[in-house]
Amino acid sequence: MRPLFLALSLPILISHQPSATSDGAYEKLMDRVLAKAQAELQKTTKLRVVRPWATAWTTTSKYYVVKTTESYAQAKALAKSFDQMAPLIQGLIKPDFTWPHPMPVWIVPDVANYNQIGTSGDADAHSSNYASHFSQGSTGKPVVVLNQPNAQYVKILATHSLVHQFIDRAYPNSQARTWVQEGLCSYFSLYWDWKWGASELARYKKTNTLIPIRILLSRNIDSMGSKMDQHFIELGMFFNYMLHYREDTKSTTDGNKVQEGQFVDYIRNTLAGKNIGDHFIQKLIFRKTRDVEADFRAQKF
Length: 301
Ligand SMILES: [Zn+2]
Description:
Layout: H1 25-47, E1 57-60, E2 64-68, H2 72-93, E3 103-108, H3 111-120, E4 132-134, E5 143-146, H4 151-170, H5 178-190, H6 194-206, H7 213-218, H8 228-244, E6 252-254, E7 257-259, H9 262-271, H10 280-287, H11 289-298
Parallel strand pairs: 2-3, 3-5
Antiparallel strand pairs: 1-2, 4-5, 6-7
Helix pairs in contact: 2-4, 4-5, 5-8, 6-8
This protein binds zinc ion.
Zinc ion binds next to helix 4 and helix 5.
Protein backbone atom coordinates (compact mmCIF):
# COMPACT_ATOMS: atom_id res chain seq x y z
CA MET A 1 0.00 0.00 0.00
CA ARG A 2 1.39 3.37 -0.96
CA PRO A 3 1.32 6.08 1.67
CA LEU A 4 -1.06 9.00 1.30
CA PHE A 5 0.33 12.09 -0.34
CA LEU A 6 0.87 14.74 2.25
CA ALA A 7 2.69 17.44 0.28
CA LEU A 8 0.78 20.63 0.85
CA SER A 9 1.89 22.04 -2.46
CA LEU A 10 -0.53 19.71 -4.20
CA PRO A 11 -4.13 20.76 -4.58
CA ILE A 12 -5.40 17.24 -4.80
CA LEU A 13 -4.83 14.42 -2.36
CA ILE A 14 -5.16 10.84 -3.37
CA SER A 15 -7.23 9.61 -0.47
CA HIS A 16 -8.73 6.65 -2.27
CA GLN A 17 -6.22 5.13 -4.58
CA PRO A 18 -6.85 3.18 -7.73
CA SER A 19 -5.68 -0.39 -7.55
CA ALA A 20 -1.95 -0.75 -8.04
CA THR A 21 -0.96 -2.61 -11.14
CA SER A 22 2.19 -4.53 -11.84
CA ASP A 23 3.01 -2.72 -15.10
CA GLY A 24 3.55 0.68 -13.55
CA ALA A 25 0.33 2.12 -15.01
CA TYR A 26 -0.67 3.38 -11.60
CA GLU A 27 2.60 5.24 -11.16
CA LYS A 28 2.22 6.81 -14.60
CA LEU A 29 -1.31 7.83 -13.76
CA MET A 30 -0.11 9.39 -10.52
CA ASP A 31 2.61 11.32 -12.32
CA ARG A 32 0.05 12.78 -14.69
CA VAL A 33 -2.41 13.67 -11.94
CA LEU A 34 0.27 15.31 -9.84
CA ALA A 35 1.78 17.25 -12.73
CA LYS A 36 -1.66 18.58 -13.65
CA ALA A 37 -2.38 19.46 -10.04
CA GLN A 38 0.92 21.30 -9.63
CA ALA A 39 0.36 23.33 -12.80
CA GLU A 40 -3.14 24.30 -11.68
CA LEU A 41 -1.86 25.37 -8.29
CA GLN A 42 0.85 27.56 -9.74
CA LYS A 43 -1.68 29.30 -11.96
CA THR A 44 -4.03 29.82 -9.03
CA THR A 45 -1.57 31.08 -6.44
CA LYS A 46 -0.29 33.81 -8.73
CA LEU A 47 -3.76 35.26 -8.97
CA ARG A 48 -4.95 34.97 -5.40
CA VAL A 49 -4.23 36.22 -1.94
CA VAL A 50 -5.53 33.49 0.29
CA ARG A 51 -7.54 34.57 3.30
CA PRO A 52 -7.48 32.28 6.36
CA TRP A 53 -10.35 29.82 6.52
CA ALA A 54 -11.18 30.97 10.07
CA THR A 55 -12.22 34.34 8.65
CA ALA A 56 -14.30 32.99 5.77
CA TRP A 57 -17.49 34.76 4.69
CA THR A 58 -20.71 32.86 5.24
CA THR A 59 -24.13 33.40 3.77
CA THR A 60 -27.30 31.45 4.44
CA SER A 61 -29.90 31.09 1.70
CA LYS A 62 -33.08 29.05 1.50
CA TYR A 63 -31.32 25.76 0.78
CA TYR A 64 -27.64 26.25 1.58
CA VAL A 65 -25.05 27.78 3.89
CA VAL A 66 -22.16 28.83 1.68
CA LYS A 67 -18.78 29.55 3.21
CA THR A 68 -15.83 30.91 1.25
CA THR A 69 -12.66 32.91 1.76
CA GLU A 70 -12.73 34.53 -1.67
CA SER A 71 -15.33 37.24 -1.14
CA TYR A 72 -18.77 37.89 0.24
CA ALA A 73 -19.92 38.49 -3.32
CA GLN A 74 -18.84 34.97 -4.28
CA ALA A 75 -20.73 33.49 -1.33
CA LYS A 76 -23.90 35.37 -2.31
CA ALA A 77 -23.62 34.55 -6.00
CA LEU A 78 -23.04 30.86 -5.36
CA ALA A 79 -25.89 30.63 -2.85
CA LYS A 80 -28.19 32.18 -5.43
CA SER A 81 -27.11 29.69 -8.09
CA PHE A 82 -27.41 26.71 -5.75
CA ASP A 83 -30.89 27.85 -4.73
CA GLN A 84 -31.90 27.72 -8.39
CA MET A 85 -30.52 24.21 -8.63
CA ALA A 86 -31.96 22.74 -5.41
CA PRO A 87 -35.61 22.50 -6.57
CA LEU A 88 -34.46 20.84 -9.80
CA ILE A 89 -32.41 18.27 -7.90
CA GLN A 90 -35.25 17.64 -5.46
CA GLY A 91 -37.90 17.57 -8.19
CA LEU A 92 -36.17 14.83 -10.10
CA ILE A 93 -34.75 12.74 -7.29
CA LYS A 94 -37.39 12.95 -4.54
CA PRO A 95 -40.17 15.51 -4.97
CA ASP A 96 -41.85 14.76 -1.61
CA PHE A 97 -38.64 15.28 0.36
CA THR A 98 -38.75 17.98 3.03
CA TRP A 99 -35.54 19.98 2.99
CA PRO A 100 -34.34 19.71 6.60
CA HIS A 101 -32.29 22.92 6.88
CA PRO A 102 -29.82 24.82 4.74
CA MET A 103 -26.99 22.43 3.94
CA PRO A 104 -23.30 23.44 4.12
CA VAL A 105 -21.12 24.12 1.09
CA TRP A 106 -17.52 25.10 1.71
CA ILE A 107 -15.43 26.70 -1.02
CA VAL A 108 -11.95 26.26 0.38
CA PRO A 109 -9.02 28.41 -0.73
CA ASP A 110 -6.15 25.97 -0.85
CA VAL A 111 -5.09 22.40 -0.88
CA ALA A 112 -4.27 22.27 2.82
CA ASN A 113 -7.88 22.98 3.71
CA TYR A 114 -9.21 20.73 0.99
CA ASN A 115 -7.09 17.81 2.07
CA GLN A 116 -7.78 18.32 5.75
CA ILE A 117 -11.54 18.24 5.28
CA GLY A 118 -11.37 15.56 2.64
CA THR A 119 -9.54 13.12 4.80
CA SER A 120 -11.19 13.83 8.13
CA GLY A 121 -14.13 11.67 7.13
CA ASP A 122 -14.93 9.03 4.63
CA ALA A 123 -14.68 11.46 1.73
CA ASP A 124 -16.12 10.55 -1.60
CA ALA A 125 -13.50 8.62 -3.49
CA HIS A 126 -13.42 11.05 -6.37
CA SER A 127 -12.05 13.86 -4.21
CA SER A 128 -8.65 12.75 -5.46
CA ASN A 129 -9.34 13.26 -9.15
CA TYR A 130 -12.03 15.88 -8.95
CA ALA A 131 -11.65 19.09 -6.93
CA SER A 132 -14.98 18.66 -5.15
CA HIS A 133 -16.49 16.07 -2.84
CA PHE A 134 -19.27 15.41 -0.36
CA SER A 135 -17.63 14.95 3.03
CA GLN A 136 -20.04 12.48 4.55
CA GLY A 137 -17.86 11.79 7.57
CA SER A 138 -17.36 15.43 8.60
CA THR A 139 -19.55 17.29 11.07
CA GLY A 140 -22.52 18.80 9.24
CA LYS A 141 -21.71 16.73 6.11
CA PRO A 142 -20.54 19.61 3.93
CA VAL A 143 -19.85 19.74 0.23
CA VAL A 144 -16.21 20.79 -0.12
CA VAL A 145 -14.88 22.45 -3.26
CA LEU A 146 -11.35 23.59 -4.00
CA ASN A 147 -11.79 27.14 -5.27
CA GLN A 148 -11.00 27.83 -8.95
CA PRO A 149 -10.28 30.97 -10.96
CA ASN A 150 -13.20 30.12 -13.28
CA ALA A 151 -16.51 30.92 -11.52
CA GLN A 152 -18.53 28.69 -13.84
CA TYR A 153 -16.27 25.76 -13.11
CA VAL A 154 -16.78 26.25 -9.36
CA LYS A 155 -20.53 25.91 -9.90
CA ILE A 156 -20.09 22.81 -12.04
CA LEU A 157 -17.80 21.17 -9.49
CA ALA A 158 -19.99 22.12 -6.52
CA THR A 159 -23.25 21.01 -8.12
CA HIS A 160 -21.87 17.52 -8.68
CA SER A 161 -21.35 17.16 -4.94
CA LEU A 162 -24.61 18.91 -3.99
CA VAL A 163 -26.34 15.96 -5.63
CA HIS A 164 -24.33 13.45 -3.55
CA GLN A 165 -25.27 15.47 -0.47
CA PHE A 166 -28.95 15.46 -1.44
CA ILE A 167 -29.00 11.71 -2.14
CA ASP A 168 -27.45 11.09 1.28
CA ARG A 169 -30.31 13.04 2.92
CA ALA A 170 -33.13 11.81 0.74
CA TYR A 171 -32.12 8.15 0.56
CA PRO A 172 -29.77 7.47 3.52
CA ASN A 173 -27.50 4.48 2.94
CA SER A 174 -28.68 4.10 -0.62
CA GLN A 175 -27.00 1.14 -2.26
CA ALA A 176 -27.63 2.48 -5.77
CA ARG A 177 -24.78 1.62 -8.08
CA THR A 178 -22.01 4.03 -9.03
CA TRP A 179 -23.35 4.85 -12.50
CA VAL A 180 -26.74 5.88 -11.07
CA GLN A 181 -25.29 8.18 -8.43
CA GLU A 182 -22.48 9.63 -10.55
CA GLY A 183 -24.82 9.93 -13.52
CA LEU A 184 -27.23 12.08 -11.53
CA CYS A 185 -24.41 14.24 -10.15
CA SER A 186 -22.91 14.70 -13.59
CA TYR A 187 -26.25 15.43 -15.21
CA PHE A 188 -26.99 18.30 -12.82
CA SER A 189 -23.48 19.71 -12.99
CA LEU A 190 -23.77 19.89 -16.79
CA TYR A 191 -26.96 21.86 -16.35
CA TRP A 192 -24.76 24.94 -16.12
CA ASP A 193 -23.31 24.38 -19.55
CA TRP A 194 -25.02 21.83 -21.80
CA LYS A 195 -23.20 23.23 -24.79
CA TRP A 196 -19.88 22.36 -23.23
CA GLY A 197 -21.12 18.84 -22.35
CA ALA A 198 -22.29 18.31 -25.92
CA SER A 199 -19.05 19.64 -27.39
CA GLU A 200 -16.96 17.37 -25.16
CA LEU A 201 -19.06 14.38 -26.20
CA ALA A 202 -18.63 15.33 -29.86
CA ARG A 203 -14.88 15.58 -29.32
CA TYR A 204 -14.66 12.05 -27.85
CA LYS A 205 -16.73 10.80 -30.76
CA LYS A 206 -14.50 12.50 -33.30
CA THR A 207 -11.33 11.15 -31.72
CA ASN A 208 -12.78 7.66 -31.34
CA THR A 209 -12.24 7.72 -27.60
CA LEU A 210 -15.82 7.30 -26.35
CA ILE A 211 -16.11 5.04 -23.34
CA PRO A 212 -18.55 2.21 -24.19
CA ILE A 213 -21.83 2.26 -22.29
CA ARG A 214 -21.21 -1.18 -20.77
CA ILE A 215 -18.12 0.33 -19.11
CA LEU A 216 -19.96 3.46 -18.01
CA LEU A 217 -22.56 1.22 -16.37
CA SER A 218 -20.15 -1.11 -14.63
CA ARG A 219 -17.15 0.86 -13.49
CA ASN A 220 -16.74 1.98 -9.89
CA ILE A 221 -15.16 5.28 -8.97
CA ASP A 222 -11.72 3.88 -8.12
CA SER A 223 -11.30 2.38 -11.57
CA MET A 224 -12.09 5.57 -13.51
CA GLY A 225 -8.63 6.97 -12.74
CA SER A 226 -7.45 9.75 -15.02
CA LYS A 227 -10.59 9.37 -17.17
CA MET A 228 -12.89 10.45 -14.36
CA ASP A 229 -13.84 13.74 -16.02
CA GLN A 230 -14.72 11.94 -19.22
CA HIS A 231 -16.78 9.34 -17.36
CA PHE A 232 -18.72 12.11 -15.67
CA ILE A 233 -19.36 14.01 -18.90
CA GLU A 234 -20.48 10.92 -20.79
CA LEU A 235 -22.69 9.76 -17.92
CA GLY A 236 -24.22 13.23 -17.59
CA MET A 237 -24.97 13.37 -21.31
CA PHE A 238 -26.35 9.81 -21.22
CA PHE A 239 -28.77 10.88 -18.45
CA ASN A 240 -29.69 13.94 -20.52
CA TYR A 241 -30.45 11.64 -23.46
CA MET A 242 -32.55 9.23 -21.35
CA LEU A 243 -34.42 12.01 -19.55
CA HIS A 244 -35.09 14.40 -22.41
CA TYR A 245 -34.47 12.85 -25.82
CA ARG A 246 -35.21 9.14 -26.05
CA GLU A 247 -38.90 8.62 -26.82
CA ASP A 248 -39.58 5.57 -24.66
CA THR A 249 -37.71 6.82 -21.58
CA LYS A 250 -38.02 10.61 -21.46
CA SER A 251 -40.21 12.86 -19.34
CA THR A 252 -42.43 15.36 -21.12
CA THR A 253 -44.32 18.49 -20.21
CA ASP A 254 -47.84 19.36 -21.19
CA GLY A 255 -48.41 22.95 -20.24
CA ASN A 256 -47.35 23.09 -16.60
CA LYS A 257 -47.89 19.39 -16.07
CA VAL A 258 -44.90 17.05 -16.13
CA GLN A 259 -45.48 13.58 -17.44
CA GLU A 260 -42.68 11.61 -15.88
CA GLY A 261 -40.97 9.02 -18.00
CA GLN A 262 -39.59 5.57 -17.35
CA PHE A 263 -36.09 6.76 -16.60
CA VAL A 264 -37.12 8.99 -13.68
CA ASP A 265 -39.17 6.14 -12.27
CA TYR A 266 -36.22 3.79 -12.54
CA ILE A 267 -33.83 6.24 -10.87
CA ARG A 268 -36.10 6.83 -7.87
CA ASN A 269 -36.79 3.12 -7.41
CA THR A 270 -33.10 2.32 -7.63
CA LEU A 271 -32.17 4.95 -5.05
CA ALA A 272 -34.91 3.70 -2.75
CA GLY A 273 -33.56 0.16 -2.95
CA LYS A 274 -36.62 -1.29 -4.65
CA ASN A 275 -36.42 -4.32 -6.88
CA ILE A 276 -35.77 -3.04 -10.39
CA GLY A 277 -34.93 -6.40 -11.97
CA ASP A 278 -38.01 -6.36 -14.21
CA HIS A 279 -38.07 -2.62 -14.80
CA PHE A 280 -38.35 -1.51 -18.42
CA ILE A 281 -35.13 0.51 -18.13
CA GLN A 282 -33.17 -2.33 -16.54
CA LYS A 283 -34.06 -4.62 -19.42
CA LEU A 284 -33.48 -1.92 -22.02
CA ILE A 285 -30.01 -0.79 -20.99
CA PHE A 286 -28.59 -4.12 -19.89
CA ARG A 287 -30.14 -6.38 -22.54
CA LYS A 288 -30.19 -4.00 -25.49
CA THR A 289 -27.04 -2.09 -24.64
CA ARG A 290 -25.76 -1.96 -28.23
CA ASP A 291 -29.03 -0.58 -29.61
CA VAL A 292 -29.17 2.05 -26.88
CA GLU A 293 -25.54 2.92 -27.46
CA ALA A 294 -26.00 3.35 -31.22
CA ASP A 295 -29.00 5.59 -30.67
CA PHE A 296 -27.23 7.64 -27.99
CA ARG A 297 -24.21 8.16 -30.23
CA ALA A 298 -26.41 9.30 -33.10
CA GLN A 299 -28.29 11.79 -30.93
CA LYS A 300 -27.84 15.47 -31.78
CA PHE A 301 -27.77 17.57 -28.63
ZN1 LIG B 1 -19.47 11.92 -7.63
